[in-house]
């Protein structure tokens, strides 16, 4: 299978794994929910996990790949504030944890670009 054909499936797999993690270990995600959001953090954790699972399913299916990948790009932008909150909250933690939290910030851009590439290459399939 050529790389371009695997790319959507890899992105779908990443989103599915992240979605499952939101349900399997919600507490760590609850801590990243910005306090400015209304409601309980757990609700946002489960909602974002469900969204990731839905996006994964949409990207896995060629017929819905383009809109799902564009939605995934928007999702990656939308969760960026949670990653910023995590980096701020973890600034006093041990160096490996602090580095992981800060390292997540620049990873959002490649995720957005990857999702857009999947959407662009998903046209006409």
From TrEMBL:
It is a multi-pass membrane protein. GO terms for cellular component: membrane. InterPro entries: DoxX. Its main location: membrane. It is found in: Membrane. Keywords: Membrane, Signal, Transmembrane, Transmembrane helix. Residues 1-23 form the signal peptide. This is DoxX family protein. It comes from Streptomyces guryensis. The lineage of its organism: Bacteria, Bacillati, Actinomycetota, Actinomycetes, Kitasatosporales.
